[in-house]
Design a protein that fits this description.
CATH architecture of the largest domain: Up-down Bundle
Number of helices: 9
Distance between the termini: 23 Å
CATH topology of the largest domain: Alpha-lytic protease prodomain-like
Strand content: 5-15%
CATH class of the largest domain: Mainly Alpha
Shape: elongated
Helix content: 55-70%
Strand order of the largest sheet: 1-2-3
Length: 306
């Protein structure tokens, strides 16, 4: 029997790409966090639900951007305890779970406030809404420009880029609501846009929540068919059987796999390990693979009990 074969090159490259563009995440985080405070205060002072709903969305994005910053830092941090055998990569996933709770909380709050305004005629400071909405749009466009350069190389930066795209949509909604309130004199438009933003945020939160649960439940990575991966391993020269295959996502952009490969007695197991590891990295983008090679003359192989 041969020992495990491990592929680290893809994970190391991903971490390196994230580190190169960490400054982009830092600038975007600073801009979004500062504007979140401004928009939250403006929403409370102006009475605009649209501003409050967009501020809640930004709060979740501050958490997401912060998680991306943390992820690029801890990706190369050595474990000093000796107990974190998978490192601290899951910190990003837990932070995403917190963002989901924040987004759902904001959506529920806005929905309750909106229903509470039925039949009422609240005074909305449309001028404040318009000014803050335009500033928010400018801030988001600057953040988009900063993140675009690294989105093609780093998955962390790409995720942050998509979050800011969604923020930009929210800022446009605030500007539209302010213009409609000024043009018609009706605060109803503020409530309508707020509900639309809240629904948009809730839908995104549910989608992100499903991704978080998929990772924590150690399901097969999205877009990867375990049966296809098993067949591909079976086609590696020298492999006669594949069993005990497990594949899951450790954190975004870092898929992990383990498998037992059976070869004929006398075959070169090291060649099989090299070919299988290379195939998993290049074809399925698996960042870390642990493969165990067995021969057909073994009387017993004890795999997982479940």
């Amino acid at each position: 029997m041969h020992g495990p074969s491990q592929g680290h090159s893809h994970g190391a490259a991903a971490a390196h790409a994230g580190g190169r563009h960490r400054w982009r995440l830092g600038v975007a985080f600073g801009l979004i966090a500062a504007f979140f405070v401004v928009e939250l205060m403006a929403g409370l002072l102006s009475g605009s639900l649209a501003l409050l709903s967009d501020a809640g969305h930004m709060a979740a994005d501050v958490v997401t951007l912060g998680a991306a910053l943390v992820a690029t830092r801890i990706a190369t941090r050595a474990d000093t305890t000796g107990r974190r055998t998978f490192g601290s990569y899951r910190a990003e996933v837990f932070a995403s779970g917190l963002a989901v709770l924040l987004m759902l909380g904001v959506s529920v709050y806005i929905a309750v406030e909106a229903f509470g305004r039925i039949g009422a005629r609240p005074e909305i400071a449309s001028g404040t809404m318009l000014v803050v909405g335009v500033i928010g749009l400018v801030v988001n466009l600057i953040a988009l420009f900063m993140l675009r350069g690294g989105a093609g190389e780093s998955l962390n930066v790409k995720g942050a880029y998509l979050e800011v795209v969604a923020d930009t949509v929210g800022s446009i909604g605030v500007v539209v609501a302010a213009l409609l309130v000024r043009a018609t004199g009706s605060a109803w438009w503020d409530t309508v846009v707020a509900i639309a933003i809240a629904v948009f945020v809730a839908v995104r939160a549910v989608g992100l929540g499903r991704e978080v649960l998929t990772v924590l439940g150690q399901h097969a990575p999205t877009g990867m068919d375990p049966a296809e991966l098993e067949n591909a391993l079976g086609e590696v020269p020298g492999v006669t059987e594949v069993h005990d295959l497990h594949v899951w996502t450790l954190t975004s952009g870092m898929d992990v796999a383990t498998a037992h490969l059976v070869v004929a007695a006398g075959d070169a197991g090291h060649d099989v390990l090299d070919d299988a590891s290379r195939m998993l990295r290049e074809r399925f983008h698996v960042a870390h693979a642990t493969l165990q090679v067995e021969t057909t003359d073994r009387s017993e192989c004890r795999g997982a009990d479940w």
